[in-house]
TrEMBL record:
UniProt organism field: Salix viminalis (Common osier)
Keywords: Growth regulation, Protein biosynthesis
Keyword Disulfide bond belongs to the record: no
Family to which the UniProt record says this protein belongs: Belongs to the eukaryotic release factor 1 family.
Role noted for this protein: Directs the termination of nascent peptide synthesis (translation) in response to the termination codons UAA, UAG and UGA. Modulates plant growth and development.
GO molecular function, one term: translation release factor activity
Pfam families (alphabetical): eRF1_1, eRF1_2
Designated name of the protein: PEPTIDE CHAIN RELEASE FACTOR SUBUNIT 1
Domain eRF1/Pelota-like N-terminal: 1-103
Length: 143
């Protein structure tokens, strides 16, 4: 969940998914998906709002080294802002969005100017930050 996302939006989406998952024909698969959605809903209740860098939540059933099934729920705030909002129901945890956080540490500055004002900002990976922004009221050209 990105930093400015709403916990209530994700909770509602999970509720909708719960209804859809109830129609899964395979009993084992249906119970697994419904259990994961319920775990995610319960974990989200611990959050009043999304943390400043966003929220990553993985929930599901894994097979341990000794072959036993174990339910896991992992939630954390990433060390840098995450800009992806992703919900996937699959047989593995998808970590591609986290890999992007590790890739680019290069930071670029940019200045955008037009007749209405100026914006100063930075870009690092897919994270952009507005440092300063102001508007100007320029007189119109006179013939």
């Amino acid at each position: 969940m990105p930093p400015r996302d709403q916990v209530s939006r994700v909770t509602k989406m999970l509720g909708d998914e719960f209804g859809t998952a109830s129609n899964i024909k395979s009993r084992v698969n249906r119970q697994s998906v419904l259990g994961a959605i319920t775990s995610a809903q319960q974990r989200l209740k611990l959050y009043n709002k999304v943390p400043p860098n966003g929220l990553v939540l993985y929930t599901g059933t894994i097979v341990t080294d000794d072959g036993k099934e174990k339910k896991v729920t992992i939630d954390f705030e990433p060390f840098r802002p995450i800009n992806a909002s992703l919900y996937l129901c699959d047989n593995k945890f998808h970590t591609e969005a986290l890999n992007e956080l590790l890739e680019s540490d290069d930071k670029f500055g940019f200045i955008v100017m037009d007749g209405n004002g100026t914006l100063f900002g930075t870009l690092s990976g897919n994270t952009r930050e507005v440092l300063h922004k102001f508007t100007v009221d320029l007189p119109k050209k006179h013939g």
